[in-house]
Amino acid sequence: MEIIVRNAEGSLSAKDRDYAQQKINKLNKYFHQANRVEMVHRENKVDHHHSHRIEITVFADGYTIRGEENDSSITAAIDKVAHKLETRLTRLKGRIVDSYRKKGKNATTNLSAIDESSTVEDTSNKTEIKVTKQIFLEPMSYDEAALQLEMVGHPFYMFRNERSGQVEVLYRRNDGHYGLIQAES
Hints:
- The protein is an alpha/beta fold.
- The protein folds into two domains: 2-118, Ribosome hibernation promotion factor-like (Double Stranded RNA Binding Domain); 139-182, 2-Layer Sandwich (SHC Adaptor Protein).
- It has three helices and eight strands, in the order E-H-E-E-E-H-E-H-E-E-E.
- It has helices at residues 14-25, 74-102, 142-152; strands at residues 2-9, 34-46, 49-60, 63-71, 139-140, 156-161, 167-172, 178-182.
- The protein starts with a strand and ends with a strand.
- 18% of the residues are buried.
């Protein structure tokens, strides 16, 4: 598995990098084929207080699983995010197994290394759509989409890019900036 470690702000020592790699490698048991893992480290210094933010994104078996955590200790932040990812992977496995059972098939999923007995039966997180809305996707620029995002007060705004004609989603990030989601074809 290819692990890409980026230091967005701050520096990650070789010892901490090795520790993170060990934790990430433990997640290998959940995948048939993990394409790559991206880890981003940000060190925040506010009023002599240090906080480490670790973001880990795993691209494997056609899924993207992401987690992020903050802590004053970098190893604690790595532990927290590794635990969060493991919990999400176990839940994903449970949903896949449940889906196959409903279809009357054996659970032959790429996440097959997880023992079925270790899956968490999570009936409270079933996907239930309460409201369906249909919208007209007006062609607009990024600036217009940002204005509309502010006007509707939602965390995201779907629109048709006036240049490409593609449907895109503009969203507000936790850091206050914007993010853009574009579909690959």
